[in-house]
Amino acid sequence: MSANLAVVEKSENPDPSSQPAPEVVVLKFGSSILRGPAEAPLVASAVYGHVRAGRKVVAVVSAFGGATDRLLAEARALGLAHSNDLLPGYVALGEEKSAALVAIACDRIGLDACALSVRELGIVAEGEPEHSRPCGLRPDHLKQALDRHEVVVVPGFGAVRPDGRVALLGRGGSDLTAVFLAAELGLKKVRLVKDVDGLYDHDPNDRTAPALRYRRASWDLARKLGGALVQHDAIDLGESRGVEIEVAALDRADGTVIGARSAPPGPAPALPPLKVAVAGCGVVGGGVLGRLLADPRYDVVGVLVRDPNKPRDVACPPSLFTASAEDLLSRKPDIVLEALSEGEAGHAVIRAALEAGCDVASANKQAVSRDPGGLQDLAKRRGRRVFWSASVGGGAPMVETVRAARAAGEVVGFEAVLNGTVNFMLERLGDGAAFAEALADARAAGFAEEDPSSDLEGLDAAAKVRLLCHEAFGRAPEGEVSRDALTETTVADGGVRQIGAAHLKDGVVTPSVSLTADHGDPLFSSLRGEGNALKVYGADGRVWRCRGRGAGRWATTESIMADLAEIVRARRADAGLN
Questions:
Q1: Between 339 and which of 18, 162, 284, 420 could a Cys-Cys bridge form, CB atoms 3.0 to 4.6 Å apart?
Q2: Considering only CA atoms, which of 458, 554, 468 is closest in space to residue 504?
Q3: pLDDT tens digit string along 263-283?
């Protein structure tokens, strides 16, 4: 799948070096998070949040829970002793497997990810085969991967000895891998994602006295209290290389920073599950519902559907379904995730939820594009938030890209492929498929609705153009957006794309949705399948780009879940819990 270059600035000026390079972060996910392949999407989701904010990610992963012990037992059953030089190469396969599956999970939601093997990563280590120490990083491999991709997933725990054989970095060695890579990349901080939210003065499972969490802990204190939470070799390396170590739970902004100084511990805030309601249970709503029901951080209190008795592809208690928006809101959700297929009904639900004191995230472009400014004003008056990143571009962070461009200066225009269904069909038509066949394929792939008229007539793209105009220029265009329709008579060879665009000239915004092969940019012509892409033009000549999966359950679900995560962080900050 094509890359999702979230909020990364690209210059078309003669001096591209004047543009800032994207920030790189190193995140480590241990086996307490990656208990098995089913948790790979949770890691992809955490990575997605960073990419959507404009960062590139090196994700260091441990083997799935229990895998290392199983591999060791299998090798030793053949008589391999602790000192056998061949054993590390077999054991390191556990981390390589989890790295490959996390990369696949990232690709499913539209991230441009690759996975490196232990040898491809090229950490050089010396010492005992099962407890070596990093002493160097082979040049170019990691850098080249970061140049080409947004996300590089690498195995922890393993390294390569000078003789070319694989070595292990000791139990907990994935921590050491992450700290070492952060140091080699010149970073000042690395984040270790654990199943606990920081370092405590004693084991939180010991209920004889309240456990107090450290906001900051010195290197010595971390060595004293860290136990098995952070590998001591990793703490030593962090201290010697000047890399602070953040220890935090999944999707928690707060945690413990291990570094040069300590701060007194205090009670960790209790975080009860947030009550969430979902409006809609189709492609996107069903994907969101499935994620929420499996996540103990959320308590699903209701699901708004047209027919509560209709069979669904998500296992959900029947008592949660309701056909009444009033009933849904009477269940007092903290947050409403709106994914209805109809604009007027969705707009009404969003307004009612905000009036009821709920935060809202919507994937319904027809709903939010009706009056985005009005929805934001209502949210502000009620002290709530309304998010709509999932309503434009699916998994491609188009709203964030436009906001980044506008924050940097005046925006004078944008051009984009905004409809994954149409782009998918145009590619199939260009390959010689008949119109009915291309439409049937789009439905089978989960991109086209039973009634595809909104996509084919350009109404879907026009709504997204209106919403991007609000983000780019601070106002929606006056009047209708001119549209080309995709019909059976459309000539779709020669790289035709549906381009949604708007340009600001002399204070007038001119929007359009057109079918054209004369778009003049390989960013658009290289898109495949449901791919979407965006170019934003600044008045100073700079151009911002992003691309990603523009349709489908998983990419759009990930976008609305990222909005949910932002709402949760903001709510906790308001309550002083971060």
A1: 284
A2: 468
A3: 999 988 777 899 999 999 998
